[in-house]
Amino acid sequence: MPQKVAIIGTGQTKHAAKRTDVNIRELVNEAVTRALIDAEVQLDEIDAIMIGNMEPFEGFMFPEHWAVEGWGGYLKPSVKFNTGGTVGTTTIAASYYYIAAGIYDTVLAIGFEKQSDGHTQTAITTVGDPVWERTMMAGAVGNFALMASTFIAEGGVTDEHAAKVAVKARHNGARNVNAHLQMPDLKVEDVMKSELLSWPVRKLDMCPQSDGAVAVVLTADHLAKKRCARPAWIRAVTTAHEQQYMGDSPKRLAVMRSQTAASRRLYKMVGITNPRKELDVAEIYEVASWAELAMYQNLGFCEPGEAGKLIDEGVTLMGGELPVNPSGGVLCTNPIGATAMIRVAEAALQVMGKAGEHQVPNVKTALATGYGGNAWTDAMILSASF
């Protein structure tokens, strides 16, 4: 029988546009130290370390090699993951499977990015086909502008709906001591008047670029129960991939086939038939306000065409029926190599009751997702019990 797996500790840095006070080694060490303290585990009790990072975004190869003292990898088995926007959830998923298979009992998962050392948008621009796509879809902004414009044409969402999502995220982020953007007074009209980047996407519709790191301690059931009063059990993990020209996406990116496939498979694995009713919280990888609206539909929170209605009715607010990204989400914090892992760490904090000012009451079941430019999705369910 596979071992059951639980998260027993998490640690994050203070995320910011530029962490000039630390190098990568020191940045990673902040998160690792906090995770070990939270889990009440010593480094010599860690069997293996899994690392997630998008090295093109720092602009040099293998940054984890010279930072090994920062993440405690000396003489320990370790694996590096680099899968784009999903790298953080991929790293957690691999840690989960190593423990479930009985290869290791306790694993430290780490995600980090120091984007101020490189130029992220230059790397993302090269994703688009140079002849057919790049002139319209260069970088993240171009991709999400195409999503938003076709989403509007399909009906059911407006720029005001997107602005409400942006406001929700920034108000939530203001409750999160680690969040990069702290904007408690942001209003819908502020978002709609912000700088137009590529119609209809405005500056405050998009996520920031952040420096930051996160670490998560995972362990097998026989140790989790001894070490943690309320572990966050990983009930199920799944992933779905789709290789495609981005411009060939159905309805131009708003329909995320990998996300739909992964989430439906995940729900079936744990017996969820109505995610809006049966999930207590969701931490999803929304790169833009428009993307969150699209994900409401793709993750089964509402029917197609009803995403705008969901935000209008306050369903996804902190006090709503299904709070989405109480941490502030990617719209507040985006150190890409760590971003998806932050979704898992924040979901775990909610289940463990450790989320502080952005804690949702009585969380028993949480969804966490990673997003890789529509072509791939990771998803997992965390629970207070197994």
- Quote the distance from N terminus to C terminus: 14 Å
Give the strand line-up of the largest sheet.
Answer: 3-2-4-7-1-8-11-10-9
Number of strands: 11
CATH topology of the domain at 5-119 and 209-227: Peroxisomal Thiolase, Chain A, domain 1
What structural class results from the helix and strand content? alpha/beta
Secondary structure tally, helices: 15
The CATH class of the domain at 5-119 and 209-227 is identified as Alpha Beta
Please bin the fraction of helical residues. Answer: 25-40%
β-strand percent reads: 15-25%
Mean residue pLDDT: 92
Low-confidence stretches at least 5 residues in length (pLDDT < 50)?
A: none
CATH architecture of the domain at 5-119 and 209-227: 3-Layer(aba) Sandwich
Q: How would you describe the shape?
A: globular
The main sheet comes to:
9 strands, mixed
Rg, nearest Å: 19 Å
In quaternary terms, these chains amount to: single chain
CATH superfamily of the domain at 5-119 and 209-227: Thiolase/Chalcone synthase
Order of helices and strands: EHEHHEHEHHHHHEEEHEHHEHHHEE
Describe the 3D structure.
With 386 residues, this protein is α/β, with parallel strands linked by helices. The protein has a domain at 5-119 and 209-227: 3-Layer(aba) Sandwich (Peroxisomal Thiolase, Chain A, domain 1). 37% of the residues lie in helices and 18% in strands. The chain contains 15 helices and eleven strands. The chain has helices at residues 24-39, 63-66, 68-71, 87-100, 120-125, 134-137, 139-154, 159-173, 188-193, 221-227, 257-270, 275-278, 289-298, 307-312, 336-352, and strands spanning 5-12, 48-52, 78-81, 106-114, 196-198, 201-202, 211-220, 232-241, 281-283, 365-372, 376-383. The strands form two sheets. The protein has a nine-stranded mixed β-sheet. The chain has a two-stranded antiparallel ribbon with strand order 5-6. Strand 5 and strand 6 (201-202) form a beta hairpin. Helix 8 (159-173) crosses helix 13. It is globular, with a radius of gyration of 19 Å. The relative contact order is 0.20.
